[in-house]
């Protein structure tokens, strides 16, 4: 790999951007494809698969053997609210390979005793996001039921293009949220990206069951990024 290609690859990885390094196995030449780069034809299909799955593979394109080396940022799950659902969800998400963080300014809830080994920010979301902003490989789950805590990170997640944005609460709660967001200038198209009520519709009721439903929906969103196959849920 020539130095300029290596520099480009490292720069994109440091910025938490997904790229695929395409190497011609016959000629040894490599080039970097960003996720936002338009690529047509069979190579475009193969690159799209690499971005969606994160798996590297050798493909045959127009009689050439190409190795597609997928470099995807580690997916991050940020939970807004140090609640019972967060306790279960944090453990499950780490097992599934997610980097996990919890944000909650309520110091009575956001304690290391309740979330051992989990990065915990006992601050207002806007203060945390000023130094640790969301990005497209971040999933955000707002779980407090408190608009003063949930609303800012939800809107920030929409602006950042997070691959998953979910919020706990009933349909009535979400209807009120939508009214607030429209009044503050959020488009209805962006609001439609919020999974609310959060989680797949499996009839979940306990915190652990809601955590399972939420994590399944997050994984589905991660593996179908950029497609139209991600569906809303009806879990309360």
Automatic annotation (TrEMBL):
Q: Which Pfam family is one of those matched by this entry?
A: XdhC_C
Domain XdhC Rossmann positions:
77-218
Highest taxon of the lineage: Bacteria
Q: Which InterPro entries match?
A: MoCofactor_Util/Proc (IPR052698), XdhC_Rossmann_dom (IPR027051)
Membrane-crossing residues? Answer: none
Protein's name in the database? Xanthine dehydrogenase accessory factor
Native organism: Aquamicrobium aerolatum DSM 21857
């Amino acid at each position: 790999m020539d130095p300029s290609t290596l520099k480009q690859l490292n720069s994109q990885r440091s910025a938490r951007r997904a790229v695929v390094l395409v190497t011609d196995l016959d000629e040894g030449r490599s080039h970097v494809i960003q996720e936002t780069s338009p690529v047509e034809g069979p190579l475009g299909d193969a690159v799209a698969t690499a971005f969606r799955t994160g798996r590297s593979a050798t493909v045959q394109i127009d009689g050439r053997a190409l190795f597609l080396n997928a470099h995807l940022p580690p997916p991050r799950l940020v939970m807004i609210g140090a609640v019972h659902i967060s306790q279960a969800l944090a453990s499950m998400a780490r097992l599934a390979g997610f980097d996990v963080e919890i944000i909650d300014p309520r110091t009575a809830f956001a304690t290391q005793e309740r979330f051992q080994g989990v990065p915990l920010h006992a601050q207002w979301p806007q203060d945390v996001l000023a130094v640790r902003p969301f990005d497209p490989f971040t999933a955000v789950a707002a779980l407090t039921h408190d608009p003063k805590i949930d609303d800012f990170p939800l809107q920030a997640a929409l602006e950042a293009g997070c691959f998953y944005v979910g919020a706990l609460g009933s349909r009535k709660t979400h209807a009120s949220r939508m009214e607030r967001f429209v009044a503050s200038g959020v488009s209805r198209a962006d609001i439609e990206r919020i999974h609310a009520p959060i989680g797949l519709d499996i009839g979940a009721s306990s915190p652990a069951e809601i955590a399972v439903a939420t994590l399944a929906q997050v994984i589905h969103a991660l593996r179908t990024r950029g497609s139209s196959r991600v569906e809303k849920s009806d879990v309360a």
